[in-house]
């Protein structure tokens, strides 16, 4: 009789573990995501594209960028969707509403069930008007991005 009780108890334990695994799935080797902000590009007077390399570390991960005029940032732009797997992904987000000539700070942020990871602070400067003279010729770029050439 004792052997029968042991078998029944073992079956109940196994059934319970299978049930719990179904309710609370375990992701093998899931870890906090890794993230690295890389240089911004397509920088204009009023916008830019922020870029990052993110590895979700085998867990459903959301990605966003924090940006602003200081390292307090103040604005957030989220990348659409959730990402998983163990491959490093290149993700981008275009932002607008920038002030020409201002220097902006940004960092990437990745969040999954294991934690939150921030990339290092990066900096870019929104486009601004300027003027350059060489001999008797001058090139001026206005605040609207139009190029004017003067000289002979």
Write a concise synopsis of the structure shown.
The protein is mainly beta.
Q: Can you walk through the features of this model?
A:
Strand 6 (103-112) and strand 7 (115-118) form a beta hairpin. The protein has 152 residues and is mostly beta strands. The chain has one helix at residues 2-23; strands at residues 34-41, 47-55, 62-68, 75-78, 89-96, 103-112, 115-118, 122-125, 130-134, 137-141, 147-151. The chain has 1 helix and 11 strands, in the order H-E-E-E-E-E-E-E-E-E-E-E. The model has no long low-confidence stretch (mean pLDDT 83). The protein is elongated. The chain is 14% helix and 45% strand.
Describe the secondary-structure layout:
Elements: H1 2-23, E1 34-41, E2 47-55, E3 62-68, E4 75-78, E5 89-96, E6 103-112, E7 115-118, E8 122-125, E9 130-134, E10 137-141, E11 147-151
Antiparallel strand pairs: 1-2, 2-5, 3-4, 3-6, 6-7, 6-8, 9-10, 10-11
Assembly form of the protein = single chain
Order of helices and strands: HEEEEEEEEEEE
Number of helices: 1
Give a quick account of the main beta sheet: strands, pairing sense, barrel closure. Answer: 5 strands, antiparallel
Averaged pLDDT: 83
Helical fraction: 10-25%
